[in-house]
């Protein structure tokens, strides 16, 4: 960062100089606050039978490269899916006790901690 920049000069510098390093993530964040798209089981809030398993669910970017975390996300998703199908038909109570599949936006406070 060049020293001494503030305000609009600093903003202009960041707009011109920042790059993604090809590590775009976090557009469908996993979590339980009002900005989250999927829950801990990769299920999309408010949509039945839809999961996301890629870099988009990272709540924050990793401090290192992103490919290996994407592999882990996918492997865990496969584990969750096969686990659920082995248990099918799954008792309602078991899943809802483990992780809510839906949340009501009105029940979420803006103070909810980020995940
Ligand atoms: C140039 C470049 C270099 C990189 N180098 C590194 C590196 O050295 N190390 C590292 O760790 N990470 C690196 N990354 C980042 C890494 O590749 C990504 O973080 C990772 O691949 C993301 O995985 P993903 O599954 O989220 O998405 P992707 O790998 O982008 O997979 C998305 C898949 O969905 C498919 N798709 C898209 N739309 C549709 C559709 N409508 N229907 C069906 N299929 C669809 C696409 O064809 C693609 O196969 C690099 C990225 C880039 C672009």
Describe the model.
It is a single chain. This protein is mostly helical and 115 residues long. The chain is built from 3 helices and no strands. It has helices at residues 7-17, 67-86, 92-98. The longest helix is centred in the middle third of the chain and has 20 residues, at 67-86. Bound molecules: flavin-adenine dinucleotide (FAD). Flavin-adenine dinucleotide (FAD) binds at residues 22-23, 54-55, 65-68, 70.
Which ligands, by name, code or SMILES, are bound? flavin-adenine dinucleotide
Q: Helicity level, as a percent range? A: 25-40%
Mean pLDDT, to the nearest integer, reads 83
Main β sheet profile? none
| N-to-C order of helices and strands | HHH
Secondary structure tally, helices: 3
**Total count of strands:** 0
Give start-end ranges of low-pLDDT stretches: 100-115
Write a concise keyword list for the protein shown above.
about 120 residues; mainly alpha; about 35% helix; about 0% strand; elongated; disordered C terminus; binds flavin-adenine dinucleotide
State the gist of this model.
With 115 residues, the protein is an all-alpha fold. The chain has 3 helices and no strands.
Write the layout of secondary structure elements.
Blueprint: H1 7-17, H2 67-86, H3 92-98
The protein binds flavin-adenine dinucleotide.
